[in-house]
Design a protein that fits this description.
This protein is an alpha+beta fold. The chain is built from 4 helices and 17 strands. The strands form 2 sheets. The protein has a 12-stranded antiparallel barrel. Strands 13-14-15-16-17 form a 5-stranded antiparallel sheet.
Amino acid sequence: MRLPSYQRPMTALFYVVSLSLLGACQTLDTIGQSLNSLNDGLGQYAEKTENTGPALSTATLPDFGIGDAFVYDNGRAIYVEDIKGENILWNGGGDYLFEMSRDFTGPILDWSYTDDEDRKRSGSAMVKEGAGTIWPLQYGTHVRISTRSANVDPDTGSVNEYDQWLTCMVPATETVEVPAGTFDTFVIECSRYYKQWWMQTTRWWYAPDIGFYVKRDRKWNSGSDHSEELMTYGPAPAKIAQPAQDILAETVQQSLENNNSGDAQTATYGALEIAITPLKTVQTEKGIWCRTYRQELTARNRTSTQIKSACRMNDRWVIEDEVAEAVEAETSGS
């Protein structure tokens, strides 16, 4: 039976397509893998380009201690409030608390804060079993990480759960200059996806010398961008563990009482090293002796430095803001 003339081209096309598909069967898996690679953001790194940045040794996960603090040029300041096993509890200001593993590129495992309407907001996340890790860091590494998140509605208390995934890579090393100094860094880039949609990308410049990132850029699908650079870092005197604060206070007293200007008094508490160096001594019009001094706290290769002053009253050195109160009490008692 002869086909009508209008059906002949369509039939021929059908056979051509069928034969083409049969010939390509053995490459479908390869095609699927390539498409997945493109879809999850790794396609652009299929060919490893030459790294022109500094040669860095493989970097392991950073260590932290209570009181470790980092301050950025946008005003954001975070510090370690507590160590919970292998996890770190960070304070991001006020009552904003968030818990993470030592891998700061990973999801926030637990978080909470009070919003502008005085509502308590909270949520959590977990890394799914079998997910990869970007650590230890080395140029060219890339992994895919699957996560599950849960946010609590502040009004109803209902929990909204959803899955996301990240692609993380180390596309380069780079020397960067920020307010805190110049550092050789690993560039770490993680892109976050919900289903097939790109949601957000974060890029960190991680400095192995201090065990934290000195710069961070963030981009969202909403079009908003955010960037910050490290200004200061190191143990925060008011946030270190109480026993360490007690040793710090005693070291200040000993140094100001016994040391000449330029001579440091040192002490340690665990990994924390304390150095108090008197700088200048003056006598006020009221006959009160006062000294300025440099206070240095070092732990895990991070140092914070403060220039402070104290005046001697009632057989002890009274530090800065306490001086006015002490003077008033001494005057009223005389």
